[in-house]
């Protein structure tokens, strides 16, 4: 039997021009949307004026793709959910994206998990995220954030709507104090994920001394940390 042809990006762009104006959610997870394809997809998404949720996870479009992405995200101020996880964005890509994120006033959920973000990227995020006044869910799992935690923790204090914070696999064992000091100020935080951070007894004690100030916290995940007896 004849195989069904996969739709090309060009075909999707053409179809969008004919009437995708009412799309609310687009999922393009693991679709190899990179380079020119990402630019073409951006043109398609620009026509979807009611778009509120965009999932571009696992496309590995890297730092150059992040710069392209920033150009069309600026035209999507109504986005509430944005998933850019697992795209190898790195610090230079975050440098391009961060100013645009601050302009998406409706943003509520943001995932930048597993993108090789380190101190420089953390600094740019810390400047932009407090301007996202509706942001309640932030996923930063799988990034090397220990050296950027002081800046990020100061940023978290300003994110008054933050209820869910994902910091698993971030290598926080050697610099957990800034996060611990910020916890009493996160009055809306309900969910905190600190899995697989190499946290031993001393870092856990530091967190334990402060976490009582998180008056709304209902879920704390410390799985796969070394908190047993010495």
Automatic annotation (TrEMBL):
Pfam family name, one: LRR_6
Cited InterPro entries: Leu-rich_rpt, LRR-containing, LRR_dom_sf
SUPFAM superfamilies tied to this protein: RNI-like (SSF52047)
Protein name: Uncharacterized protein
Lineage: Eukaryota, Cryptophyceae, Pyrenomonadales, Geminigeraceae, Hanusia
């Amino acid at each position: 039997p004849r195989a069904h042809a996969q739709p090309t990006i060009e075909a999707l762009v053409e179809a969008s021009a004919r009437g995708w104006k009412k799309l609310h959610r687009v999922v393009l997870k693991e679709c190899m949307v990179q380079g020119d394809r990402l630019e073409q997809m951006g043109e398609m998404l620009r026509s979807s004026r009611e778009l509120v949720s965009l999932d571009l996870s696992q496309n590995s479009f890297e730092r150059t793709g992040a710069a392209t992405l920033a150009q069309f995200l600026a035209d999507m101020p109504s986005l509430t959910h944005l998933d850019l996880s697992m795209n190898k964005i790195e610090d230079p890509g975050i440098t391009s994206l961060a100013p645009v994120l601050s302009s998406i006033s409706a943003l509520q959920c943001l995932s930048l998990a597993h993108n090789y973000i380190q101190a420089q990227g953390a600094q740019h995020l810390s400047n932009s995220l407090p301007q996202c006044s509706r942001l309640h869910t932030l996923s930063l799992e799988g990034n090397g954030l220990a050296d950027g935690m002081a800046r990020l923790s100061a940023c978290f204090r300003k994110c008054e709507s933050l209820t869910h914070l994902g910091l698993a696999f971030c290598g926080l064992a050697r610099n957990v104090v800034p996060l611990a000091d910020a916890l009493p100020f996160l009055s809306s935080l309900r969910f905190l994920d600190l899995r697989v951070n190499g946290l031993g007894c001393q870092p856990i004690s530091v967190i334990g001394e402060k976490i009582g100030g998180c008056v709304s916290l209902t879920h704390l995940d410390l799985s796969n940390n070394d908190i047993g007896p010495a």
